[in-house]
Specification:
Largest sheet: 9 strands, antiparallel
Number of domains: 1
Oligomer: single chain
Strand content: over 45%
Mean pLDDT: 85
Number of strands: 9
Number of helices: 4
Radius of gyration: 17 Å
Structural class: alpha+beta
Length: 184
């Protein structure tokens, strides 16, 4: 398979996987039960789309790597999977456990872990440095009789992001795709 076809496959899988999410319900002015990932990522997308600094984008598909230097990206498309991993829904308040770590008076880390198997976002971890988000890590999983898809998403506002997808189907071997973007 050519690298350009692998690139197209990687983008298609990311869009397909992220399009299967419900849209979050507004809390009507009430405090959000969890970290508002969608609002945070919307701000990041807006800032990144305005800045449009050069990036290095690498795509790894089953061991074959292609790296490109790009002057701009459409971050609305690039980061859609992060947006669709938001767990901030009133109906899910009892579907995630929350674990927080404080260092002095500063919040250092919050981890939300799914308690229900059917939820796609299995883990959401936010790390802070002096009360600013420094790292977001997400584990997603969808499982059906046809396919098992696992995703690891990692976003660092000062560094870049990585999306790793592993897909196993009953009709083919496991396929792993990793997209890494680093700010230049």
């Amino acid at each position: 398979m050519k690298i350009s076809q692998l690139f197209a496959l990687a983008i298609s899988l990311a869009i397909f996987f992220s399009s299967c999410q419900e849209q979050p319900v507004s809390a009507g002015g009430q405090p959000e039960p969890f970290f508002d990932l969608k609002a945070y990522m919307e701000k990041q997308i807006e800032a990144l789309n305005q800045e449009q600094s050069a990036v290095r984008k690498a795509i790894l598909v089953d061991g074959q790597r292609e790296t490109k230097q790009l002057d701009s990206l459409d971050y609305r498309i690039e980061l859609k999977t992060f947006l669709n991993s938001d767990i901030n829904r009133k109906a899910w308040v009892d579907k995630y456990t929350t674990d927080s770590t404080l260092e002095g008076s500063y919040l250092k880390e919050v981890t939300y872990t799914a308690t229900a198997e059917k939820l796609k976002t299995r883990l959401l971890r936010i790390r802070y440095d002096q009360n600013e988000v420094s790292d977001i890590y997400i584990e997603n999983r969808t499982n059906s009789i046809v396919a098992d898809v696992r995703q690891e998403l990692h976003f660092q506002p000062e560094v870049g992001y990585r999306l790793r997808t592993t897909q196993e189907t009953v009709l083919s071997e496991a396929q792993e795709i990793e997209v890494t973007v680093k700010w230049e």
